[in-house]
TrEMBL record:
Highest taxon of source: Bacteria
Alphabetized NCBIfam families for the sequence: RSP_2648_fam_PIN (NF046100)
Species of the source: Cereibacter azotoformans
Name listed for the protein in its UniProt record: Putative nucleic acid-binding protein
PIN domain: residues covered: 2-108
Record-annotated VapC50 C-terminal domain positions: 126-179
Length: 180
């Protein structure tokens, strides 16, 4: 499955690390554009200048880890597309140009299912998507989540409760599945 990761799922860190951990295990093929990666880096500005510098180094690492994920712009494609928020048309263009199956986003209102279906695409929310991956590949998803939790503990130098970590990342279904 080929999935465009919208900027809103690349930032925050925990969600991004879980998603990319699943992608690294071959559970799906991530796609994005340079513009999506730039939106992620710019979104961190609200946390301060050091956060943006850190995000830019993480963007470089993500590019290196997934060199085939960047979809180049398709000339003229955006001009024929329409979405409620014109600022998101580039995401739809990436999905079409990258032959994606879905767009992973929290912004349901900006990506109407009917508009996406007309292009052969689905809109997926991160929690449902990860829960579905877990349903078919529980060990691989659990490993990706555990790696993320372990990094969070290393950064904080304190224990990090899995349920709380996943709920803060807006992944309550996945948290419940992993606690079962």
């Amino acid at each position: 499955m080929r999935v465009v990761l919208d900027a809103c799922v690349l930032f925050p860190t925990v969600l991004r690390e879980i998603l990319l951990g699943c992608a690294a295990r071959g559970l799906f093929v991530p796609l994005w554009s340079e513009r999506i990666l730039e939106e992620w880096a710019r979104a961190t500005r609200r946390l301060g200048p050091l956060a943006e510098m850190q995000a830019r180094s993480e963007v470089a690492a993500v590019r290196a880890a997934f060199p085939a994920a960047t979809v180049p712009p398709q000339p003229g494609l955006e001009s024929r597309l329409h979405l409620p928020d014109e600022g998101d048309i580039h995401v739809l263009a990436v999905a079409i140009g990258g032959h994606a199956d879905a767009i992973l986003t929290f912004n349901a209102a900006d990506f109407p299912r009917g508009t996406l279906a007309a292009e052969g695409l689905a809109r997926r929310d991160p929690d449902g998507f990860l829960w579905e991956l877990w349903s078919f590949h529980p060990e691989a998803v659990a490993e990706a989540v555990e790696e993320t939790r372990a990094r969070a503990e290393a950064i904080s130098c304190a224990p990090v409760a899995l349920k709380g970590l996943l709920k803060r990342a807006r992944l309550p279904r996945l948290a419940k599945a992993l606690q079962a």
